[in-house]
Amino acid sequence: MENVVRVGVSFEPELLKKFDRLIKKRGYQNRSEAIRDLVRKDIADAGIRQGKGVVVGTLTYVYDHDHSDLLHKLLHLQHHHVDQTTILASTHIHMDEKYCLEVMVIRGPVGHVQKLTDEIRALKGVLFGELVVTKLAED
Ligand code: NI
Ligand code: NI
Questions:
Q1: Sheet holding 86-94, edge to edge
Q2: Among all ligands shown, which has an atom nearest to the Cα of 91?
Q3: Element (H, E) at 88
Q4: What is the phi/psi pair of residue 40, to 5°?
Q5: Which ligand approaches the C-alpha of residue 77 most closely?
Q6: Ligand 1 midpoint to CA 75 (Å)
Q7: Distance separating alpha carbons of residues 80 and 115, to the nearest angstrom
Q8: How far is the CA of 98 from the centre of ligand 2 (A)?
Q9: What is the predicted pLDDT for the residue at 22?
Q10: Distance (Å, rounded) from C-alpha 130 to C-alpha 136?
Q11: What is the largest distance, in Å, between two alpha-carbon atoms of the chain?
Q12: What distance in angstroms lies between residue 97's CA and the mean position of ligand 2's atoms?
């Protein structure tokens, strides 16, 4: 490979074990190529959402409700975006002792919807966050 930069990535052991199992099943020769593909996909997905216009979508995320002040941070973010992005509905499901799943139906300019998604996903204690843009709104 011509020009590469080496980076170190830290994993929880259990997560790494699962990742290794998955990439073996998918036929990767090593972790680096698998991680590069994930990064490429994420960059491509982000590009798709950089279009203009108003979208309606669902944001699904899973988090540890005991994680320090995560609940406050989640609510704070949602209030902060209230001028640009409308939360049309949201559902909260208590998955087990620890984890909660929430689905929000949101509408707003694609950039803001993406930004809210990115900020929620980046919070510590949020394990999973996925935005599905379902359609462009009329306005
Ligand atoms: Ni607050
Ligand atoms: Ni809950």
A1: 86-94, 99-109, 54-64, 126-136
A2: 2
A3: strand 86-94
A4: -60, -45
A5: 1
A6: 7
A7: 11
A8: 8
A9: 95
A10: 18
A11: 49
A12: 8
> Which amino acid, one-letter code, is at 86?
T
CA of 96 to the centre of ligand 2 (A): 8
pLDDT tens string 55-108: 889 999 999 999 999 999 999 999 988 888 899 999 999 999 999 999 999 999
Please give the Cα distance from 63 to 101 (Å, whole number): 7
Amino acid at 66: D
30 Cβ contact partners less than 8 Å away, ≥ 6 residues apart: none
Percentage of residues of the chain with pLDDT beyond 70: 91
CA distances from 79 to 10, 104, 130, 136 (A): 32, 14, 20, 23
d(CA 74, CA 63): 10
Q: How far apart are the CA of 10 and the centre of ligand 1, in A? A: 31
Ligand closest to the CA atom of residue 98: 2
- Distance (angstroms) between ligand 2 centre and the Cα of 123 equals 17
Q: Looking up tokens 């960059």, which residue turns up?
A: 43
Instruction: Say if pTM beats, i.e. exceeds, 0.85.
Output: no
